[in-house]
Amino acid sequence: MIIPANRLSPEALREIVEEFVTRDMPEDWSTETPLDMKVAQVMNQINEGLAEIRFDPIAKTCGVFVKEEE
């Protein structure tokens, strides 16, 4: 299930994005990039429709997913 980012509180959205950038980002993503910059980049991708927040009702988890190019 896709969760529109604007349906989340700013705090909840940031927590989801922080979890994504600290755990799920590829290892080759610069470790020298500050957390706030990584979060801002992912937030921009969400705002531009390039990534989305999804909720898995079975696992009761959510995360950020980069959309596949169509």
Task: Output the keywords.
70 residues, alpha+beta, Arc Repressor Mutant, subunit A, 3-stranded antiparallel beta sheet, 3 strands, 40% helix
Helix and strand arrangement:
Blueprint: E1 2-3, H1 10-24, H2 35-47, E2 51-56, E3 61-66
Antiparallel strand pairs: 1-2, 2-3
Helix pairs in contact: 1-2
Explain what you see.
It is a single chain. By secondary structure, this protein is of the alpha+beta class. It has a single domain, classed as YehU-like (Arc Repressor Mutant, subunit A). Helices cover 40% and strands 20% of the residues. The chain has two helices and three strands, in the order E-H-H-E-E. It has a three-stranded antiparallel beta sheet. Helix 1 (10-24) packs across helix 2 (35-47). The radius of gyration is 12 Å and the shape is globular. It starts with a strand and ends with a strand.
* Main CATH class: Mainly Alpha
Query: What proportion strand?
Result: 15-25%
What is the helix/strand order?
Answer: EHHEE
Distance between the termini: 19 Å
Please give a quick description of this structure.
By secondary structure, this protein is of the alpha+beta class.
